[in-house]
Amino acid sequence: MNKKILDHYLQFGQYTDPGLYKEILRKNLPDDIKEIGLLVRKQIIHRSTLKNGNTGSNKDLRYGDMNKVPWFRQAEDDIFPTASGVLSELFRRDLRGFVLDRAVENKLILTCRFTAILIASILKAKGIPARVRSGFRKRY
Q1: Inside any domain, residue 132
Q2: What are the distances in angstroms from CA 88 to CA 5, 17, 31, 55, 66?
Q3: Within a domain: residue 130?
Q4: C-alpha span between 92 and 80 (Å, rounded)
Q5: Does the predicted model carry a pTM greater than 0.85?
Q6: Which end of the chain is more exposed for a tag (fewer CB within 10 A), N or C?
Q7: Is residue 109 within 8 Å of 50, Cβ to Cβ?
């Protein structure tokens, strides 16, 4: 692929810039994309999963026990729209940062778009070209 294009997709944008967390992401997270995806999934609850509770795709509690999430929690997309904001809040809620055993009540509630922003930020910090694409859900 064209080096100019690859270099373009290594650049951080206003949403994907990890700020002060760039070196932490580069050094402390796995290099394997599948492992990164699993690790990110363990930090976040999709708002649909929270709404549906312990049913459907979460009937086996793979995303955690939604009964342990305080009733007043809402989607946090508007509060943490950037990778640096999401990263800051993840570390505030659990100083260990990205962990497989994050307590369900300390997970962020985000939609797919903001999860994609976080993953693109991590990949770029690791030197893997990436871009965020979202909004392809068919609406009626």
Answers
A1: no
A2: 30, 12, 21, 30, 23
A3: no
A4: 13
A5: yes
A6: C
A7: yes
